[in-house]
TrEMBL record:
Functional summary from the UniProt entry: Iron-sulfur subunit of the cytochrome bc1 complex, an essential component of the respiratory electron transport chain required for ATP synthesis. The bc1 complex catalyzes the oxidation of menaquinol and the reduction of cytochrome c in the respiratory chain. The bc1 complex operates through a Q-cycle mechanism that couples electron transfer to generation of the proton gradient that drives ATP synthesis.
Cofactors that this protein relies on: [2Fe-2S] cluster
Residue ranges of domain Rieske in the record: 251-342
Keywords: 2Fe-2S, Cell membrane, Disulfide bond, Electron transport, Iron, Iron-sulfur, Membrane, Metal-binding, Oxidoreductase, Respiratory chain, Transmembrane, Transmembrane helix, Transport
Keyword DNA-binding belongs to the record: no
The organism's place on the tree of life at top rank: Bacteria
Listed name of the protein: Cytochrome bc1 complex Rieske iron-sulfur subunit
Family label: Belongs to the Rieske iron-sulfur protein family.
Organism listed in the record: Microbacterium insulae
InterPro entries cross-referenced by the UniProt entry: QcrA_N (IPR045603), Rieske_2Fe-2S (IPR017941), Rieske_2Fe-2S_sf (IPR036922), Rieske_Fe-S_prot (IPR014349), Rieske_Fe-S_prot_C (IPR005805)
Transmembrane segments: 59-77, 92-112
Localization, UniProt: Cell membrane
Predominant subcellular localization, coarse grouping: membrane
Protein's membrane topology: Multi-pass membrane protein
């Protein structure tokens, strides 16, 4: 009841809607239901359905052909030859084969779902999920219905070609692993032995140290205190890409640094491996082979940017931090009669990452 002394309550009690004013209806909104189902051409025409089925399994077979071509291209254009044309064609044709294989699978799957699988709309009521026998039976029935609607069990050509295409699509990736393990050949009798390959580089007694990439020899007098110089063997410039330039450079790259001689801690057997405070270490990290090229002048530490391994240049490049398992191999150096820095020998241990076969 409105209080007779309350103007607001009196106004509310006396209010009536004007004749032209619409009043909101509080009835619940009616469910509009699903729109009428529109049949596709493949639902109405058996010929169109057969044509769609042929299209799908033809695409799956095209995918198989692409996978086979990628494997064949790997063999027809071997990157081991070192020829730039083979490397380019290898990348081009393998890429085209893999792209065709995956693209055909994708297009076939989309066309299958749009033209062949059942597309009737339905409403699934929500209910509490319980692990009862009836729930399990309903799940099994749902899988059975999905199999029936998709035609996976009935349309053997589509099913078998799809499985074959999926299996074939991984073949190029498996075959590409072959390039990680070169085999022995008459020209390269130790091509499959990583210990031998990583134990022998282009460094030998008398080889001059040269700037990377110019190949200009380095005088000891030109190496300033606190500097770090990227170094390659002088003979490397004589190699072409077809002769293994990149492979030899990857093993022989060196970082040269100059410290005060009294800052170096050298064992008796390595006392003559440096020259007037100049030391040379392999740039290839002993963890996974990244280039160790960050030198900190104040602490004399070398840092690998990939996984943050740190090496102490003053103490035989020993590992002081990070996942690397052993010090960087040291290149023994001295100078020749003209004052150029030269190697005393090759590295005395395999360069690169630690691996179980190395001695």
């Amino acid at each position: 009841m409105a209080h007779e002394d309350d103007p607001l309550e009196l106004e509310r009690a006396s209010w009536k809607p004007s004749p032209g004013l619409a009043v909101a209806v509080t009835d619940p909104v009616r469910n509009p239901e699903l729109p009428p189902h529109r049949e596709r051409m493949t639902d109405k025409d058996p010929v169109a359905m057969k044509r769609a089925v042929r299209t799908v399994y033809t695409l799956f077979y095209l995918s198989i052909a692409g996978s086979i071509w990628a494997v064949a291209a790997y063999m027809l254009f071997p990157i081991e030859s070192g020829r730039m044309i083979d490397i380019r064609q290898n990348n081009l044709f393998i890429g085209l084969g893999i792209a065709l294989a995956l693209l055909a699978i994708g297009i076939a799957a989309i066309h299958w779902s749009k033209a062949i699988m059942s597309d009737k709309e339905f409403v699934e009521p929500r209910h509490a999920t319980r692990g009862r026998d009836t729930t399990r039976a309903a799940a099994i029935q749902a899988f059975s219905d999905a199999n029936e609607e998709s035609g996976f069990g009935r349309r053997t050509m589509i099913r078998n070609s799809m499985i074959a295409a999926l299996v074939a699509s991984v073949a190029p990736a498996i075959v590409l692993f072959r390039g990680l393990a070169p085999e022995n050949t008459p020209e390269h009798p130790h091509g499959g032995d990583p210990v031998y390959l990583l134990s022998h580089t282009m460094w030998k007694e008398g080889t001059r140290l040269a700037h990377d990439p110019s190949g200009e020899p380095i005088r000891a007098a030109d190496v300033t205190l606190g500097s770090a110089v990227h170094v390659i063997p002088e003979d490397l410039a004589d190699l072409s890409h077809s002769d293994g330039y990149l492979e030899e450079k990857a093993k022989a790259i060196v970082l040269l640094m100059r410290l005060l001689p009294e800052q170096l801690t050298e064992s008796p057997e390595r006392a003559d491996w440096s020259y007037d405070g100049i030391v040379a270490y392999s740039k290839v990290c002993t963890h996974v082979g990244c280039p160790v090229a960050l030198y900190e002048q104040q602490t004399h530490h070398l840092l690998c940017p990939c996984h943050q391994s740190q090496f102490d240049v003053t103490d035989a490049a020993k590992v002081i931090f990070g996942p690397a398992a052993r010090p960087l191999p040291q290149l023994p150096i001295t100078v020749d009669d003209e004052g150029y820095l030269i190697a005393r020998s090759d590295f005395t241990e395999p360069v690169g990452p630690s691996f179980w076969e190395r001695h």
